[in-house]
Design goal:
By secondary structure, the chain is an alpha+beta fold. The chain has two domains: about 5-165, Winged helix-like DNA-binding domain superfamily/Winged helix DNA-binding domain (Arc Repressor Mutant, subunit A, Orthogonal Bundle); about 185-300, no CATH class. The protein contains 13 helices and seven strands. The chain has helices at about 5-10, 15-30, 45-50, 55-65, 90-95, 110-115, 120-135, 150-185, 205, 220-230, 240-255, 260-275, 285-295, and strands at about 30, 40, 70-75, 85-90, 190-195, 195-200, 295-300. The longest helix has about 35 residues, at about 150-185. It is elongated. The termini are far apart.
């Protein structure tokens, strides 16, 4: 029986009632063959007849369950009419309260990788999942099972190697970005990543003022806008930055989050701004817009060149 928490988790993953019905039906017919995951091999028309659904509804359900990481499907022989083998992942088993038996195919792996592992033993799947999570290549002990072709084995190794390379590239980019940010900070500047480029904001126009304007913390402003950009891609653009910098700065030093600690203030601003209904803060002084406009220097598409 599904719990309310599990139903909510499935709904959050985009699953509808007929998708849940198909998953439950698959779990009821899943068997653990020797050296295999909990699997079943049923034609789509049979599932449709048993559940009084149309074949199109079942097809949509299978696509949704695959996208949600609940199942993996693959034909043993790629010919029309051949029923695909369906494997239930750990995610599906958690949703079904263990009704599908013991599963070891992780739902968080990419779909292409899950499909390649459909006919593999739990032991080999465990090696691949561990290598994926740790950004490693397969250990020597992970010999390919007999049901895996040389081509598929090479595809699995290639997917792991590409993941390692992507991580190394991201780490190199992050290191370079941090070095650039540190150099800018020494000059009293911050750099804000936007959907369409980068904007450098100089603290000097704020520091030259008196009162609240001189107290503006541009690092706080930068961190808020970066978090907003993650939550609502496209909201933080090069053209919008001068206005947003002024309004975040005002909200922090005078406005409604001025008495919060930094983390609470960031969370409150991000939650409000990311809804897409953010408007000019009540009572904001024109000086904030003037200082922000003077502080912004745009370098679209490339990071600030440091000398």
């Amino acid at each position: 029986m599904f719990t309310s928490k599990n139903l909510l988790s499935m709904a959050t993953s985009g699953l509808r009632l007929e998708h849940v019905a198909v998953l439950s039906f698959l779990s009821e017919h899943a068997e653990e063959g020797e050296g295999l995951q909990p699997t079943c091999c049923l034609p789509l028309w049979d599932i449709a007849n048993q559940l009084s659904l149309s074949i199109d509804q079942v097809k949509r359900a299978v696509r949704a369950l695959t996208a949600a990481g609940a199942i993996a499907r693959r034909q043993a022989v790629k010919i029309k009419g051949e029923a695909a083998l369906t494997v239930l992942t750990e995610r599906a088993v958690a949703w079904l309260q263990g009704r599908a038996g013991r599963a070891t195919l992780p739902g968080h792996l990419p779909r292409a990788l899950r499909d390649l592992l459909t006919f593999c033993s739990p032991e080999f799947v465990g090696h691949v999942a561990q290598a994926w999570d740790r950004y490693e290549l397969l250990p020597e002990a992970a010999t390919p099972p007999s049901g895996l072709t040389e081509s598929d084995y090479a595809s699995i190794r290639r997917a792991l190697a590409e993941r390692i390379a992507e991580r190394a590239e991201l780490l190199a980019e992050a290191t370079a970005a941090q070095a650039a940010d540190d150099a800018l900070a020494e000059e009293g500047k911050v750099q804000i990543r936007c959907a369409d480029g980068y904007v450098v904001v100089d603290r000097a126009p704020f520091a030259a003022q008196k009162g609240a304007l001189a107290a503006v913390d541009l690092r706080f402003v930068r961190d808020v806008l970066h978090r907003v950009a993650e939550r609502a891609p496209g909201l933080v653009t090069v053209d919008a930055v001068p206005k947003l910098v002024a309004e975040v700065a005002y909200s922090r030093v005078i406005g409604y989050v001025s008495r919060h600690d930094a983390e609470r203030a960031q969370r409150a601003l991000v939650a409000t701004m990311a809804r897409g209904t953010w408007s000019r803060p009540k009572g904001i002084k024109p000086g904030f817009y003037a200082a922000s406009t003077a502080a912004v220097r745009i370098s679209t598409g490339v990071r600030e060149t440091l000398h």
